[in-house]
């Protein structure tokens, strides 16, 4: 992927929330997982531009994640770490500190 196409994918227009039944179920599963953080915190920017912060019950690493496409959540739920990694490489989500994010989710 060229730098030009990569930077273009990083500046996508905000997306509407998913409408399909399976996408809504997967979004709800993802939100449930966010509510059950045990350690640390995650600042999350959603594809529609909404920003939320999710804190665990105890202190820990802080991570940031920007999801550029709703499909990332579907792939995370259905394909786990592999889907998340493939979508990261495809530029569908980003983070300023990948190591912090990986420490938070593992």
- Overall average pLDDT: 85
Tally of structural domains: 1
Order of helices and strands: HHEEEHEH
Query: Could you name the CATH topology?
Result: Nonspecific Lipid-transfer Protein, Chain A
**What is the tally of beta strands?**
4
What is the overall shape? Answer: globular
Q: Structural class, from helix and strand content?
A: alpha+beta
The strand order across the widest sheet is 2-1-3-4
Cα Rg: 14 Å
Estimated share of beta-strand residues: 15-25%
H/I helix tally = 4
Characterize the main sheet: 4 strands, mixed
Distance between the termini: 29 Å
Q: What is the CATH-assigned architecture? A: 2-Layer Sandwich
At the first level of CATH, the class is Alpha Beta
Helical content (DSSP H or I, runs of 4+): 40-55%
Contiguous runs where pLDDT drops below 50 for at least 5 residues: 1-12
Region (Disordered): 1-20
Protein name: SAM-dependent methyltransferase
């Amino acid at each position: 992927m060229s730098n030009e196409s990569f930077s273009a994918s990083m500046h996508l227009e905000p997306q509407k929330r998913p409408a399909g039944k399976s996408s809504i179920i997967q979004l709800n599963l993802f939100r449930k997982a966010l509510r059950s953080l045990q350690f640390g915190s995650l600042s999350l920017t959603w594809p529609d531009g909404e920003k939320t912060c999710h804190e665990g019950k105890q202190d820990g690493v802080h991570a940031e994640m920007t999801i550029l496409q709703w499909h990332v959540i579907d792939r995370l739920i259905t394909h786990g770490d592999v889907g998340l990694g493939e979508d990261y490489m495809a530029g569908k989500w980003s983070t300023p500190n990948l190591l912090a994010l990986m420490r938070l989710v593992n």
